[in-house]
Amino acid sequence: MDFVKIDDVDKAKYMDLLLIADEQADMIEKYLHRGEMFALRDGDLRALCVVTREESGAYEIKNIVTVPGYQRRGYGRQLIAHIVDYYKDSGNELYVGTGDCPAILRFYEGCGFAKSHLVKNFFIDNYDHPMYENGQQLVDMMYLKMNLKRKN
Description:
The chain is α+β, with helices and mostly antiparallel strands. The chain has helices spanning about 15-20, 25-30, 75-85, 100-110, 120-125; strands at about 1-5, 35-40, 45-55, 60-65, 95-100, 115-120, 130-135, 135-140, 140-145.
């Protein structure tokens, strides 16, 4: 298994995959070129992630997606573990924003994130169509946070 950092010139070729996790291309464009992209490969591409620096010491996972044929096999969790290891020396906090959906929140909490704060009406105010996860319309963005300097 390999973790690869994707060069800036190659990022756009992954747009179709990124659209699985964030359904609107213009929203992806807001962070794609200012973020760092990482891929998990195990023979072929298994998962992809874009991380941005939001302020000194604070990073945010903006998009994480597992290739559909490889979902529920631990690749997303392994990619997050790599991201944590990659940023632990340069950052204090890692954030991820997601819809207020119990299954997704459990996934991130299982990776070591804890609920941080809520951005009311994020999905309504920022997307040009209603967003759904597991049949539930997404309205608010739930942010979760991980302390990168946690003691082992």
